[in-house]
Design brief:
With 90 residues, the chain is an alpha+beta fold. It folds into two domains: 30 residues, no CATH class; 60 residues, no CATH class. It is built from three helices and two strands, in the order H-E-E-H-H. A two-stranded antiparallel sheet has the order 1-2. A hairpin with a 5-residue loop joins strand 1 and strand 2. The longest helix has 12 residues. It binds zinc ion. Zinc ion binds next to helix 3.
């Protein structure tokens, strides 16, 4: 029976094949929920869903789309916002 902290489903279970061809069970942190658009709350594309220790090693350019409001608004909301700004209505 695993230790108490490993009996809950707080951590995800990953089966890893060792070099000695044994399969061992490892417990890893769960991935965070996906980033959502600040306006329409749709899930954002192009944003990796990783824990902070992995996100730290990912280049900034790979963490969000390279456009104004990338990683904040979805493409449709950004397009609408830019159009509204160009028309001078905030
Ligand atoms: Zn949106």
């Amino acid at each position: 029976m695993p230790r108490g902290m490993f009996r809950s489903r707080r951590l995800r279970r990953v089966f890893v094949k060792t070099p000695g061809s044994r399969t061992v069970l490892q417990y890893r942190r769960r991935k965070p929920s996906r980033a959502h658009c600040a306006s329409c709350h749709k899930p954002l594309a192009g944003i990796p869903r990783e824990i902070n220790s992995i996100m730290r090693n990912i280049p900034k350019t790979a963490k969000r789309p390279q456009r104004p409001y990338g990683g904040m608004f979805c493409s449709a909301c950004t397009r609408a916002l830019v159009q509204r700004k160009a028309r001078g209505a905030a």
